[in-house]
Amino acid sequence: MILDTTNPNTNPQKITIINGANLNLLGKRETDIYGNQPFEVFFENLRQKYAKVCELEYFQSNIEGEIINKIHQIGFAQHKIILNAGAYTHTSIAIADALRAVPTQAVEVHISNVFKREKFRQISFLSEVCVGTIGGLGYKGYELAILYFLEL
Ligand code: DQA
After folding, report:
1. Which of 110, 119, 120, 124 gets mutated to test ligand 1 (max ligand atoms within 8 A of its CB)?
2. What is the rounded average pLDDT of the residues 67-94?
């Protein structure tokens, strides 16, 4: 299916990208792995590109409880979630339980290919409560998750 991003929609889908621990440093942090574009710049381009077909929101926190609160806040509305929890992916039963507690769908995204990295990155507490996981495709993974939700 080819998505017509010029077609105005009166009831746009709401999608929130939630980035977790250390992802506020994208563009500066381990640039050989994550690239050197600040996420905010990428997000603004993405928001404008899809403005006619969905309402995109960006939330970032380094604090586990704030990520959980955000999932509670949006997870009961018809509001989809694209989640890169950073290292909380590999540790947080609490974020997994928050996703279990709400009816909305989430797609898990990782910028790097976690399966080519350390063993501890190959465990995700979140994958089993997400509809799917995209990894290793850089920032493109976030856009692919949006396309998944728009074509549902
Ligand atoms: C990451 C992978 C995690 O292992 C790491 O802790 C991150 C970023 C990624 O997007 O590739 O912070 O989620």
Report:
1. 110
2. 97
